[in-house]
Each structure stands twice: as C-alpha cells, then as structure tokens.
Design goal:
The structure is a single chain. By secondary structure, the protein is mainly alpha-helical. The chain contains one helix and no strands. It starts with a helix and ends with a helix. 0% of the residues are buried.
Length: 41
C-alpha cells in the first residue's frame, strides 16, 4: 500500500464531503432568503 495513494484517496473523499456540505449550506441559505422574500412581498 503506497502512502501517497491513500493520501490522494483521502483528499478526494474529504473534497467530496466538503462539496456536499457546501451545497447543504447554500440550499439552507437560499431557503432562508426565499422565506424572507415571501414575508416581505
């Protein structure tokens, strides 16, 4: 088992997880904004 390979694999996994969490945060913010716009409108 090459340590560099495992490191790359871990990095890609971490990046995927980060991407997912960023999407979740963005959708939450979008929902929040939409709710506020509906209240204002």
């Amino acid at each position: 088992m090459n340590p560099n390979d495992t490191k790359k694999d871990l990095n890609s996994k971490i990046k995927k997880e980060l991407g997912k969490s960023k999407l979740k945060v963005l959708t939450n913010e979008k929902d929040f904004l939409v709710k506020n716009l509906k209240k204002a409108g």
